[in-house]
Amino acid sequence: MNWQADWGLRFRMFVTMFLLFALYIVFAGVITAYVGGGLFFFALLFGGFSLVQYYFSDTLTLKSMGAKTVSRDEYPQLHASIERLSQQADLPKPKVAVVDSSVPNAFATGRNQRNAAVCVTTGLMKTLERDELDGVLAHELAHVKNRDMMVMTIASFLSTIAFMMVRWGAFFGGGHGRGREGGGGGIVVAILVSLVVWIISYLLIRALSRYREFAADRGAAAITGNPSALASALLKISGQMDKVPKEDLREEAEMNAFFIIPIKSGVIGRLFSTHPSTERRVEQLRDLEREMQTF
């Protein structure tokens, strides 16, 4: 495997995290100045719950999707493929899980490389050929190798707190705002600042998320040496999405950020998607295929 450090990904991660950190400093200052301890205490409390969620992210994500950790006896070929690809990617073998769903998709979760899980749906295994499935599994392993779950969880933390403050700010801060200069005005300022912080962080995180998909596609190509297989898989999965019952899609829509192909939700959903378009991803993979053929 010719795995090379993706400096483009690292640079974007650094810039995004730096901007989010700067945003957090301003945010914390405004909340403290205008509201006092009420909302800030709420943020710390919510942060504690988020850390617990992060620590048990693999278990919680699998349970939320109805995924079942499967043994080698139940899915010998799936285990063999993940074990082989993990060795090629120089990773510990992750947990192997399966979701009984007609939606053809896959995702990876876990806080680090030693506490990761790769999950596929039964619909995906029925849809793809073996080399195409290997491409998808390698894509998920590339997410694990790039520590994308950890980075995106940390990056999303501020955005989630800001959103919760916009939604519940008046309730949690109202009592603490009274008696301060500005009173209710301070609460309004805090909620408006929270709204701005949420919008900016939301856009930054979506941009980072889309780029990480490109990076994981490149990582999959490096692991398998077969970019065209992943390109074929992406086209198949994207085409099959249109045939899946809407009820099944609605049940899994909240997991879009984890899936290899997102469940579309109209024009706005695509505009703020966590993933780049399938067409752009396939074009990149075909470029990689041509580059490999020249060496």
Which SSEs are present, and which pair or pack?
Elements: H1 7-34, H2 37-55, H3 57-64, E1 68-69, H4 76-88, E2 95-99, E3 106-110, E4 116-121, H5 122-127, H6 130-145, H7 148-177, H8 184-224, H9 227-241, H10 246-252, H11 266-271, H12 278-293
Parallel strand pairs: 2-4
Antiparallel strand pairs: 1-2, 3-4
Helix pairs in contact: 1-7, 1-8, 2-7, 4-6, 6-8, 6-9, 7-8, 8-12, 9-12
CATH architecture assignment of the largest domain = 2-Layer Sandwich
The CA-CA distance between the termini, in Å, is: 14 Å
| Apparent shape | globular
What sequence of helices (H) and strands (E) makes up the elements? HHHEHEEEHHHHHHHH
Could you describe the 3D structure shown?
This protein folds into two domains: 7-58 and 152-194, no CATH class; 59-147 and 208-293, 2-Layer Sandwich (Zincin-like). The chain has a four-stranded mixed sheet, with helices on both faces. The model is unreliable at 172-182, 244-250 and 265-271 (pLDDT under 50). Helix content is 69%, strand content 6%. The longest helix is centred in the last third of the chain and has 41 residues, at 184-224. The protein is an alpha+beta fold. The protein has helices spanning 7-34, 37-55, 57-64, 76-88, 122-127, 130-145, 148-177, 184-224, 227-241, 246-252, 266-271, 278-293, and strands spanning 68-69, 95-99, 106-110, 116-121. Its EC number is 3.4.24.-.
